[in-house]
Amino acid sequence: MLCTDEVRHVGDAIAFVVADTVSAARNALEAIEVEWEPLPAVSHTGDAAKPGAALVWPGREKNNAYIADVGDVEAARKAFEAAAKSVKIEIVNQRLVTNFMETRGVVVSYGADDRYTMTVSSQGANMIHNSVCGIMKLDPKRLRVLTHDVGGGFGTKAPAYREYALAALAAEKLKATVAWIADRSEHFTGDNQGRDHITVAEMAIDEDGKFLAMRLDCAANMGAYYSEVAPYIPYLGATMMTGVYDIPVIYGRVRAVWTHTVPVDAYRGAGRPEAAYLIERLVDAVSLATGIPPEEIRRRNFIRKDAMPFKTSTGRVYDSGDFNQHLTRALEASEYKSFASRYADSRKRNKLRGIGMASYIEACGQTSPETSTVRIEKDGTATVFVGTQANGQGHATTFRQLVHDQLGLPLEQINVITGDTDLIPMGGGTVGSRSMPTGGSAVQKASIKLAGNLKALAAQHLDAKPDDVEIADGLARVRGTNRALSFAELAAKPGVSADQLTGVEKNFIPPAPTYPNGTHVCEVEIDPETGHIEFANYVVVDDFGVTLNPLLLEGQVHGGIGQGIGQAIMEDTVYDESGQLLSASLMDYALPRAIDVPNYTFETKNVPCTTNPLGVKGAGEAGAIGSCPAVMNAVVDALHRGCGITHIDMPATPQKVWQAIQSARQ
Fold first, then answer.
1. Which of 70, 96, 492, 617 has a C-alpha 20 to 30 A away from that of 402?
2. Nearest to 94 by CA among 532, 570, 558, 520
3. Is the omega angle on the peptide bond into residue 528 within 30 degrees of 0, that is, cis?
4. Is 243 within the bounds of a domain?
5. Are 97 and 210 in contact (CB under 8 A)?
6. Is residue 658 part of a domain?
7. How far apart are the C-alpha atoms of 58 and 60, rounded to whole Å?
8. d(CA 281, CA 445)
9. CA–CA distance, 250 with 244 (Å, rounded to integer)
10. Where a domain ends, among 164, 190, 216?
């Protein structure tokens, strides 16, 4: 939990202090004297494998964490040799700091029964329970983990951190309740960060712009340590490198490296945003190189609707989708055909204007099994127990809707309980857009089983067959009659068992992921004298399968786009050569505010998913996946039309844009 002889990044911990007040703890911290011996450091992804670079771990030559391949290297080589043309790009997917509204925190008490009770701001109480029990070598029965309302997670609150076990240790030793709440500076130097890839990609095409083969080489920064799912993220991205396109041959190599920086882990989308950004920037580069319009180059290479289910050259099986449908609608809604007149108006005002698009796909919704229990209480209300949790997305509302659909109870009579490992011993939390495809499906299945139990129970007391009983409006009624019993009346019948009032779905997991997809179209105007980017229009048309709650769905998309815009034009995590984090506060790290994001036009063109009973496709990460490439394609389009610039890396800050314009003019 704590370092001894060597620390490997700024923020690595060597001691912890417990005190009655925060000020006393800070004073005690200042009293600790540490003799530091500075060691060589490497902090930048591109420098990690260079000759002479400082090694993070002894014996790890070139700071190699791992190397993984996807696809067929020899087939790709032959395809490129036979191609009419190839197009190559190098892109940076910069490191991000996850800034949720509420920093991480934990409160632990130790009882006379030798049990710990841990209340933690997490994305999954069960995940934290499993990790902390492993770290502390605890009998799982000795730890109860609770998670209540959480102000944002985005992947960073999913893993366990050292403070959770340390607080538990302190609570046991002091026989007192111990709390730790991160301040924002601790968050910047102690919580997992996101992204941080440098990738070279190339596409082989024929004379008509048809994609023949794709190659990529990705350097992925792990930071100083492996966090929980960090090693999988860049490999997952490589398996999605083909995007929505029919690319017969691919080869990708992922080279994960160590650096003296904060570890990375899942951040909203986790590998799929990196893949979408790569392929959509590459497709636009092909458009520029061939002169084929960006919408046309996409249409020529889309996987066809009638080819579904479609197995990609990385082994992914897309079950459903109509990519041309949402591209066409997004172009219509954005008034793409009349862009020329708006461009001319911008030119009159000495502004640069561009329009960009991105057609994305992601894989989600199948990270771990989910168990759900739905129970009728004595007063006739229903209680739902489910292992997935909410971080502000409104999951409880949707779970109530699913129960209402089967039982007919008003939403206010359905109680949803999550985040308690004593009451819910198994659960996968809210990660990977799994809450509805997996958690929601488990709730629906449990509700259907409960409805069946109630029909059978009512049939016994209404002198009817179970098939003649219908469930509606919180009643079990014999069809075509007024003979009915309320759920409360059924629960009060003599001899009724708990099992008869309960529906349980154990360990449900879809047989395959869901593949949400869509098209974002972004239009920007740039002031060449300042480099400032203004959003003129933003349209997104998504395919989320079946929509359960349109308002909550739209909120998820809006939030994701906001985070994508933040990465595209503002956010950047900067380390100096010695490993010091220079952007370690909100004074130095820019986040989008309301004024920085546009009003969005959001629509759906849904094709139901075939791999889960609800037909839904996970939506929590999609906005952050399609937004970065759409924004950057629009920025590059504006810079290319006005100055001949064909590439700029994220974040496209005013300074960076202005400098690119000045260099092009010179």
1. 492
2. 570
3. no
4. no
5. no
6. yes
7. 6
8. 41
9. 14
10. 190
Q: Domain for residue 307, yes or no?
A: no
Per-residue pLDDT reduced to its tens digit, 400-445: 999 999 999 999 999 999 999 999 999 999 999 999 999 999 999 9
Query: C-alpha distances in angstroms, 260 versus 263, 389, 585?
Result: 9, 33, 19
Residue span of the structural domain in which 529 resides: 322-365+515-666
Whose tokens are 């004298």? That residue is: 529
Q: What is the pLDDT of residues 203-253, one digit of tens each?
A: 999 999 999 999 999 999 999 999 999 999 999 999 999 999 999 999 999
Examine the fold and report which residue of 488, 508, 528 is the final residue of a domain before the chain moves on.
508
- From CA 496, how far away is CA 331, in angstroms rounded? 59
pLDDT at residue 367, rounded to an integer: 87
Q: Phi and psi for 292 in degrees, rounded to 5? A: -80, 130
Say how many domains are in the chain: 3
Torsion angle of C-alpha atoms 587, 588, 590, 595, degrees rounded to 10: 40
Q: How far apart are CA 296 and CA 94, in angstroms?
A: 29
DSSP string, 76-133: HHHHHHH-SEEEEEEEEEEEE----SS--EEEEEE-TTS-EEEEE--S-HHHHHHHHH
Same domain, 481 and 551: no
Same domain? For 523 and 626 the reply is yes
Unique residue bearing structure tokens 């629960």: 491
| C-alpha dihedral sign at 358, 609, 621, 619 | positive
Q: Give, in order, the Cα–Cα distances in Å from 642 to each of 358, 362, 528, 664.
A: 21, 33, 9, 10
- This prediction has a pTM of 0.97
Which amino acid is present at 2? Answer: L
CATH number at residue 108: 3.30.365.10
Residue 77 domain-assigned (yes or no): no
Angle at 519 between CA 517 and CA 521, to 5 degrees: 160
CA distances to 149, 157, 409, 589, 621 from 153, rounded to whole Å, are: 11, 5, 31, 19, 12
499 and 556 housed in the same domain? no
| DSSP state, residue 410 | -
Non-local (6+) Cβ contacts of 33 within 8 A are none
Residues 575 and 646 in one domain: yes
Same domain, 330 and 391: no
**Spatial CB neighbours of 595, under 8 Å, sequence gap ≥ 6:** none
Phi, psi (5° rounding) for residue 426?
A: -135, 140
347 with 391, same domain: the answer is no
Q: Is the domain of 503 the same as that of 607?
A: no
* Residues 443 and 544 grouped into a single domain: no
Q: Are strands 116-120 and 143-146 parallel, antiparallel or unpaired?
A: parallel
| Run of H or E including 475 | strand 475-478
Nearby residues of 99 by Cβ (< 8 Å), 6 or more positions away: 187, 586, 589, 591
Span 503-547, pLDDT tens digits: 999 999 999 999 999 999 999 999 999 999 999 999 999 999 999
Token representation of residue 150: 């959480």
Identify whether the C-beta of residue 185 lies closer than 8 Å to the C-beta of residue 209. Answer: no
Other C-beta atoms within 10 Å of 348: how many?
7
Element (H, E) at 504: strand 502-508
